[in-house]
C-alpha cells in the first residue's frame, strides 16, 4: 500500500515501525493543533465548541488512518474517535518491554520460590506436581534454581526432596 501524498509519515504503520511512526504522526498532529483530540475524548454536545472538536477529531483521525498500512487500518476502520484509534494502534503495535527468559521463569514460578523461601515443602511439591519444569527455573537476580535456594537457606528437608526429584 503506497503512502498517501497528504500522509503525516513517509512509511505506513506496520508491525515493525510503531515507535518511529508514532513520533512522526504525533509531531504532525501537534503542528496542526490536533493532538488535544487524541489526548482526551470530548463529551457530545450540540454547541459550537463540540462542532469545533468534532472537526478536529475528524481531521486527526483521517491523518492517523491514511498513515496506516492495511493491517493497522483494519483495526481502526470503524473507529470514530482519534483517541480511540491512537490507543488501539498503541496497544497492538507498541513494543512490549523486553523480559528475559529468567524474568519469565521467575514470574511464572514465583510460587515455587516463595514456598522454598518459607520452608514449605508441601506447597513446593504441589507446585512441582503441576509444573515439573519449574525444577529448572532460575531466580533472575542470582541464577539460582530452587535447590540452590533451599541449600542456601538450610532447608535440608527441601534439599533432600528436590535432589530426589532431579
Automatic annotation (TrEMBL):
Pfam families: Retrotran_gag_2. InterPro entries: Ankyrin_rpt-contain_sf (IPR036770). This is Uncharacterized protein LOC107881930. It comes from Prunus mume. The lineage of its organism: Eukaryota, Viridiplantae, Streptophyta, Embryophyta, Tracheophyta.
